[in-house]
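Sequence in, structure out. Go.
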Amino acid sequence: MQEPSIEINGQKLTPAQSAVVRVAVTQFQSDIQANPEAFGGDEHGVAMAEAYMARSAEVLLLLLTAD
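Output:
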């Protein structure tokens, strides 16, 4: 698998650094799935967890479909 090209504030990450980002996003999703109330069990916390899952899924899709 070729790691995606990621640039942060004009600095291009190395493939190893890009892998760290990919693994971190994957682990973040896993943590939320394991504990859906990670941000609190109230309405706001549940909404935050759902939003973070949706946005991290979008980012992960971009990371995994890199050319």
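Check: The chain has one domain: 14-64. The beta strands are 7-8, 11-12.
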